[in-house]
UniProtKB/TrEMBL annotation:
Domain named YdhG-like: residues: 23-114
A Pfam family assignment: DUF1801
Alphabetical list of SUPFAM superfamilies matching this protein: YdhG-like
Domain of life: Bacteria
Protein name, as recorded: YdhG-like domain-containing protein
Length: 130
C-alpha cells in the first residue's frame, strides 16, 4: 500500500493501513525503538511514525520493498560500517523486506540518538541559565 498520499493522526493508524506481514515488521521496529527509548513519545511527523525525545529522535516507515529507518545523519554516521550492508543516504537506511530486520542494531542506534538528544537538551538548558 502507498501510505504517502494518506494522512495519519497516530502511529497505530499508520501501521493499520498496511497488510498484516508489513504490520508485523513495523510493530517489531516500533517495539525495538520503544524498548531502547522508553522515555520517548510517539507522534506522526512528515507522515511517518516518529519517536520524540527533546526533538525528533528517529522515524520509520514502510515502502514497497523496504522498511525505512531515519535516525538522522549523526545516527547513520556513527554506525556507518554496520549499516554499509544496507542502502541508505545521509540520514536514512533501507532494510529490505524479506531479510531479517536488524533489531539489535536499531536499538543501539536509538540509544545513541537518545544520548545525543539528551546532551543537546542539557547544553541548551545550560545556555539559558547563563
Amino acid at each position: 500500500m502507498d501510505a504517502s498520499n494518506l494522512s495519519f493522526a497516530t502511529v497505530d493508524e499508520y501501521i493499520a493501513c498496511f497488510p498484516t506481514d508489513i504490520q508485523e515488521l513495523l510493530l517489531g521496529v516500533r517495539a525495538t525503538i520503544r524498548e531502547a527509548a522508553p522515555e520517548a513519545a510517539e507522534k506522526i511527523s512528515y507522515q511517518m511514525p516518529t519517536f520524540d525525545l527533546h526533538g525528533n529522535l528517529v522515524h520509520f516507515a514502510a515502502f514497497k520493498n523496504h522498511i525505512g529507518f531515519y535516525p538522522g545523519a549523526s545516527g547513520v554516521a556513527a554506525f556507518q560500517q554496520e549499516l554499509s550492508a544496507y542502502k541508505g543516504a545521509k540520514g536514512s537506511v533501507q532494510f529490505p523486506i524479506g531479510r531479517p530486520i536488524p533489531h539489535e542494531l536499531i536499538a543501539r542506534i536509538v540509544r545513541y540518538r537518545v544520548a545525543e538528544n539528551k546532551e543537546r537538551a542539557a547544553a541548551k538548558a545550560s545556555r539559558r541559565k547563563k
